[in-house]
Amino acid sequence: MLLLSHKKISDTDLESASIIWDFLTQKDNLDKADLIFVLCSHDVRIAKYAADLYRNGYAKQILFSGGINFFTKNIFSDSEADSFAKLALNEGIPAKDIIIENNSTNTGENIQFTKSLLNRKNIKVNSIIAIQKPSMTLRVRLALDKQWPENQFIISAPDYSLLDAPHSHINLFMIINEIVGDLQRIITYPKLGFQSEIAIPESVEYAFNYLVSQEYNLHLVQ
User: Fold this and answer.
1) Nearest-CA neighbor of 141 among 130, 150, 133?
2) For the chain, which terminal residue's Cβ has fewer other Cβ atoms within 10 angstroms, N or C?
């Protein structure tokens, strides 16, 4: 299966991937908000983290957003959002405090479909804790800045490193492919109007080009 494909990861590969991981990872100081907005993924640790934030009083509702994509079509039998919501229910989160958006297939749709859903439900929110995998937090920030500028966002994620990112469904080789693809989107998506632009440090650009040359290209947009 693709998610279990691998090659020997050299020390240079790992060093380059760590440079990209650190650049992509951002985390704000937590504060109470109107809503926890979960941009779902293949990593159910995010759902557990959302449940922890809810229990600690950071917000009174959780919205899970995510359908099925390149990675999760081989992992979940249901949409990402429904799968995460089930985990949250098992964690003791009341069903009345869970909102599900299960049609989006990328970050832009996570935002657009969530805004539409909240409008349809007449739910007014001004402050939002947006959570994703650590390596997706910069991309989420840039997309929210472009597509939802009227709201106040706190960006957060479970606290784990590149080496701790693999889990039972995805190995380190695929994690590196994923972050290479995420960085490519940060470079190219501003031109398409999907997110705000950010300067890419030379060391990050060099690490990206090196990893692409080493065939970490499974998550690249062609």
Assistant:
1) 130
2) C
CA atoms within 13 Å, Cβ hemisphere of 94: 6
SS3 (DSSP) at 81: helix
Residue whose entry in the numeric block shows the structure tokens 């990872």: 25
Cross-strand partners of 129: 36, 154
**What confidence tens digit (pLDDT) does each residue in 47-97 have?**
999 999 999 999 999 999 999 876 677 777 789 999 999 999 999 999 999
CATH number of this structure's domain 35-156: 3.40.50.620
pTM across the whole model: 0.94
d(CA 213, CA 10): 13
Phi/psi for 156 (5° steps) reads -150, 170
Q: What is the pLDDT of residues 131-169, one digit of tens each?
A: 999 999 999 999 999 999 999 999 999 999 999 999 988
Tell me the H-state helices in 6-130: 11-24, 45-55, 80-90, 107-120
* C-beta separation of 186 from 139 below 8 A: yes
Is-contact 64 40, C-beta < 8 A? yes
pLDDT in tens, 182-194: 999 999 999 999 9
Cα-based distances in Å from 139 to 8, 26, 133, 187: 28, 9, 10, 10
Domain boundaries, the chain: 2-24+161-213, 35-156
Q: Is the separation of the CB atoms in 121 and 9 below 8 Å?
A: no
Q: What strand order describes the sheet that includes 127-131? A: 98-101, 62-65, 35-39, 127-131, 152-156
